[in-house]
Every structure is written in structure tokens, then in C-alpha cells.
Write a structure and sequence with these properties.
The protein is of the alpha+beta class. The protein has 8 helices and 20 strands.
């Protein structure tokens, strides 16, 4: 089921939460809405679900205008951050609930068979008779997804589905969710403020700020070709350096950074820790302020001659200590004209 948002607007009192958003989500695509708090991502999801109505524009499901269709008639499955399971019902009863109240009548045998199939799908076989309080948070979220899938939705919507779980459980669940999506092929839209989650899971990432789409594309496109300082900073650690570009180069902290294709003038240069390298051939002199050891490597906090600090990653066997002098090579940059 293809979903189209055509110049959608939503205003709460005097605050415009969504400002003319247009977006097409292909049938079977998994798309992440990513942005800071207040960027409009959850409001968009709720409008697609029918929990909020747009004040302007249209929402299409395929060729059908779904803008004013009530939520129960939209054919969507919704998974919330905090599970929203019925505590007095067993796992099996929670999964069956939507089928029992649906307009589509099913026999008790059909419902039972569907529940058992879903328990196998979400890897909870044998837990149907337990209550939500008797299973873990990760298992409760699997139950919530099974309940959403039970009614055979045309569209699956997830609002911060892993936000209440710890990091290791989140990592396992998002891999599992991607496997489920690939198996079922349901058009899926999910909201998150976690960049890693969006980039791991989605076919396409839609980045929002102040109710507008500021960039969208594949994870590779938004990571490798950010179109603004906001996107560059939002997608991860990035150091900002000010400089003046001239003939494809810029003088920064006693060294030179190559900026091919950048027009002459004042620029903002952004570099991530992985864009920098500690070596004797680097162009920028630096002094190590701190060495941070981690299981998978070492991170240096280094001071440049202009007083600015940068972080960079080095192999774990790198021999370096606080106070060491060295040089930094800049491998990659993102540069934008300074307004």
C-alpha cells in the first residue's frame, strides 16, 4: 500500500506542528521519520493513523483519499512506545483482541490459529498463557507488534517502539523487526529520535525540523551527503570549524583543509571523529588533551592551535598519551557557506 502526504498541515491552537509536508512512501517500504522533539514526526504518524486530522492537504492510501477516514476504517496497525497491553489479559488474549472487535468476523478456531501463528512469528511460542507482567519489556513489545499484525493491516505504524527498552534489547529488537518486515512486506512508517535506530532499520530516512522535511533519502545519502549544518550535526558528533575558503582550500588552526568544489567565502566546516586521522603527515598540529579507551578502540581529545577541541578515533594499539604533540589529517569534510 503506497502512502502519499500532499502538502499536509496541522495546527494546535496557535502552534503549527506540521508545515506543508509532502512525502510518498512506496508500497512495502520501511521509512523512518527522524527528528528532535517538537519536529512534527509523531503528529505526522498520528495523522496517517487517523488519530489526528489534517487541517490542510491530503493523505492518500493508494489512490484513495484517506484524509477524513476514521481510524478503525483505515486498516492500520499501530505500535506504541509503552506497549499499551491490557494487563488483565493474557498474551494470547491481547493478540486476539483486535480480531474479536473487528468488523471482519472470524471464528474462534480462526482466531486461535492466527494467534498461534503470530506467537511463532514473534518468537514467543509457549508464552500465550502468561500475563504482560510475567514477561520482559522486549517480549511485551513483541506482543504489541503481534497484536498490530493480527488484523492484517495495510500499513504498520510504530511510534518510538523501542524507546522504553535498554540499549542491548533495542539493538536485538530492531534487527528482528527488519527481518519481520522483509518477510511480510508491509508498508511501514516509524518514528524515532534515535539516529542509529533509523539508519539501521530504514530503507529511507526522512529528517524533520520545526514541522518541515529538511532532507530525505537512503541512509547512505543522508549520511554521506547531508544538505545543511542542521542535518550534519543531528546525524552524529560533528565538530564545527569556521574558515574562509579560497581556491578550494581553507586555513584552519595552523593547517590547511582541502575543500574541492566549495565556493570562495566564509564557510562552516564540519568533521566527525572518523573523518580525522592522527599521523605525522597530517596538516593540522594538535596536542592530546585526553585519551579515552573503549572496548573497540581509543578516542583522542585534541587541542588545536586556535584553542578549539576535536575528537578523533585511533586504533586501540596506538601509542599515545596526554600531552603528546602530533598532527591531524582531515580525510573528509562537509562544508557550507556561512550565513
Amino acid at each position: 500500500m503506497k502512502i502519499t502526504l500532499d502538502n499536509v498541515v496541522k495546527t494546535f491552537d496557535t502552534f503549527r506542528a506540521v508545515r506543508g509536508v509532502s512525502l510518498e512512501i512506496g508500497s512495502g517500504e520501511l521509512v523512518a521519520l527522524l527528528g528532535p522533539s517538537g519536529s512534527g514526526k509523531t503528529t505526522i504518524l498520528r495523522m496517517v493513523a487517523g488519530l489526528e486530522y489534517a487541517d490542510g492537504g491530503r493523505i492518500l492510501f493508494g489512490e484513495q483519499d484517506a484524509t477524513d477516514i476514521p481510524v478503525r476504517d483505515r486498516g492500520v496497525g499501530f505500535v506504541f512506545q509503552h506497549y499499551a497491553l491490557f494487563p488483565h489479559m493474557t498474551v494470547a488474549e491481547n493478540i486476539a483482541f483486535g480480531m474479536k472487535v473487528s468488523k471482519r468476523k472470524r471464528s474462534a478456531a480462526e482466531i486461535e490459529a492466527r494467534v498461534n501463528d503470530l506467537l511463532v512469528l514473534v518468537k514467543l511460542s509457549g508464552l500465550g498463557n502468561r500475563f504482560p507482567s510475567q514477561i520482559s519489556g522486549g517480549q511485551r513489545q513483541r506482543v504489541a507488534l503481534a497484536r498490530a499484525l493480527a488484523v492484517d493491516p495495510k500499513v504498520l505504524l510504530l511510534d518510538e517502539p523501542f524507546g522504553a527498552l535498554d540499549a542491548n534489547v533495542r539493538r536485538d529488537l530492531r534487527r528482528w523487526l527488519r527481518e519481520i518486515h522483509d518477510e511480510l512486506g508491509i508498508t511501514t512508517l516509524f518514528v524515532t529520535h534515535d539516529q542509529e535506530e533509523a539508519l539501521d532499520l530504514a530503507d529511507r530516512v526522512v529528517i524533520l525540523d520545526q514541522g518541515k522535511i529538511v532532507q530525505h533519502g537512503t541512509p547512505e545519502e543522508v549520511c554521506r551527503q547531508p544538505n545543511s549544518p542542521f542535518v550534519t550535526r543531528f546525524l552524529g558528533d560533528a565538530h564545527r570549524l569556521e574558515a574562509v575558503a579560497s581556491h578550494g582550500r581553507a586555513q584552519v588552526a595552523g593547517g590547511v583543509i582541502e575543500l574541492p568544489g566549495v565556493e570562495d567565502g566564509s564557510v562552516e566546516i564540519f568533521v566527525r571523529p572518523a573523518d580525522l586521522e592522527w599521523n605525522t603527515a597530517g596538516s593540522i598540529p594538535a596536542v592530546v588533551s585526553r585519551v579515552i579507551d573503549r572496548p573497540d578502540g581509543r578516542r583522542l581529545l585534541a587541542s588545536l592551535s586556535d584553542g578549539s577541541l576535536v575528537e578523533l578515533d585511533v586504533p586501540p594499539e596506538t601509542k599515545v598519551a596526554k600531552g603528546d604533540h602530533g598532527r591531524i589529517a582531515v580525510l573528509r569534510t562537509h562544508a557550507f557557506p556561512r550565513g
